[in-house]
């Protein structure tokens, strides 16, 4: 098991891209924690859907928890923007 710090980009209600030099396999399950600018942590089970060698990997959110609902709400609401 490996734990690391990376940058999340291209965040959507379905998943995100993670900039990381780590090696992953398509269909691999990853526990992802995203720290918001306010310090709040969002936690998800995700699945690798694509990998770009030495660049990063694309993840799809698998968990149906309240953090997934929070992400959906962010993209529906005009009053809150992710920066």
What does this structure look like?
13% of the residues lie in helices and 40% in strands. It contains one helix and five strands, in the order E-E-E-E-E-H. It has a five-stranded antiparallel sheet with strand order 1-2-5-4-3, with no helix packed on it. 13% of the residues are buried. The model has no long low-confidence stretch (mean pLDDT 80).
Per-chain topology:
Layout (H helix, E strand, L loop, with lengths): L6 E3 L5 E5 L9 E7 L5 E12 L3 E6 L4 H11 L7
Antiparallel strand pairs: 1-2, 2-5, 3-4, 4-5
Number of strands: 5
What value does the average pLDDT take?
Answer: 80
Kindly state the percentage of residues in helix. Answer: 10-25%
**Widest β-sheet, arrangement of strands:** 1-2-5-4-3
Based on secondary structure, the structural category is mainly beta
Q: Tell me the Rg in angstroms.
A: 13 Å
Broad shape: globular
Oligomeric state as shown: single chain
Count of separate DSSP helical elements: 1
Q: Give a quick account of the main beta sheet: strands, pairing sense, barrel closure.
A: 5 strands, antiparallel
DSSP strand content: 35-45%
SSE string, helix = H, strand = E?
EEEEEH
Low-confidence stretches: none
The CA-CA distance between the termini, in Å, is 30 Å
In short:
The protein is mostly beta strands and 83 residues long. The chain has one helix spanning 66-76, and strands spanning 7-9, 15-19, 29-35, 41-52, 56-61.
List keywords for this structure.
mainly beta, five-stranded antiparallel sheet, 1 helix
């Amino acid at each position: 098991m490996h734990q690391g710090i990376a940058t999340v980009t291209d965040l959507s209600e379905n998943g995100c891209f993670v900039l990381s030099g780590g090696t992953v396999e398509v269909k691999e399950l990853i526990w992802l924690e995203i720290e918001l600018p306010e310090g709040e942590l969002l936690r998800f089970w995700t699945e690798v859907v694509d990998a770009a060698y030495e660049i990063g990997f694309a993840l799809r959110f698998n968990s149906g928890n309240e953090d997934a609902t929070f992400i959906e709400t962010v993209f529906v609401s005009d009053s809150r923007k992710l920066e």
